[in-house]
Amino acid sequence: MKYELEAPVDRRLKAAIDLPFRMLYHETKLPEHELPDHFHDWHELICVHQGEGKMLIDHSIVDIKAGSLIIIPGNTLHRTFQEAENPLTSSAFYISPAVFQGMGGEAASIQQFFERSRKSRNYIQILNRKQMDAFERWIEQIYTETVSQEHLRTYATLLLLQLMLISLMRMTEAVKSEKTTLSGPIWMAQALKRLDEHLHQPVSLSELAKEASISTAHFSRAFKKHTGMTLTEYVAARRIILSKEKLLRTDDTMTAIAEASGFESLPHFYRLFKKHTGMTPSSYRRRMR
């Protein structure tokens, strides 16, 4: 099977061999090449080799620098902000859940490496020099294997990736986590919390602005500045993420999922879901389960 990266990530990602992950190796991106706020089914691991910047992850902002290990579970909103004077050089892995298929019962433990970050909302770990050296050796081994012409390189690359994830699990149990902090003023944090807790209900810009004691125009400008999206775009993205979870973790009907996720109608749900994922909700459930 050929695995395609259907997520809205850098289109320069290429796969020399068919694997359920993609890799960017020691890449320095210009600020103008960074993606806007986005999310995708694949988990993401980023190792920062040098430079400084900030990252918005699930409406929280954290500083990133050399030695940062960024752990982004699938379907988590995120975006990188570069420092123009000291751009980031990093290596990144985009990892499909298919990586864990056929690994036996312990595969669930490896997936918890990502779910642990989601539950704790600690997405950044700071590696010391020894740990960073060890991780960079894994990166070198995996990259060397992907570009080689050796027999069984597909199998060998996948094994190396799995071993790297196991190594990271063990390593990060004792690594310092960088606590994420909510972006923006207090009223912004309160608005985002309310939106996330009431996605199944209609959203009113004027109501949110009134609760924040600011004008609707100021609320809209500030919301766009701090999240990178309009209120409508943010709510749609969060509802798509919620519906994905329900599609995979429940046997609810499409009508029930659309209603529970806050979509105004079943056609509206289908239209937005296909716009964001490239497939219908039914197709997504069949493919991802």
Question: How would you describe this structure to a colleague?
Answer:
With 289 residues, the chain is α+β, with helices and mostly antiparallel strands. The chain has ten helices and ten strands. Strands 1-7-2-5-8-9 form a six-stranded antiparallel beta sheet. It has a four-stranded antiparallel beta sheet with strand order 6-3-4-10, with no helix packed on it. It is globular, with a radius of gyration of 20 Å. Mean pLDDT is 84; it is low at 1-17.
SSE layout:
Blueprint: E1 21-28, E2 43-50, E3 52-57, E4 60-65, E5 68-72, E6 78-82, E7 89-95, H1 107-120, E8 124-126, H2 129-147, H3 153-172, E9 176-178, E10 181-182, H4 186-197, H5 205-212, H6 216-227, H7 231-249, H8 254-260, H9 266-277, H10 281-288
Antiparallel strand pairs: 1-7, 2-5, 2-7, 3-4, 3-6, 4-10, 5-8, 8-9
Quick structural gist:
This protein has 289 residues and is α+β, with helices and mostly antiparallel strands. It has helices at residues 107-120, 129-147, 153-172, 186-197, 205-212, 216-227, 231-249, 254-260, 266-277, 281-288, and strands at 21-28, 43-50, 52-57, 60-65, 68-72, 78-82, 89-95, 124-126, 176-178, 181-182. Helices cover 45% and strands 18% of the residues.
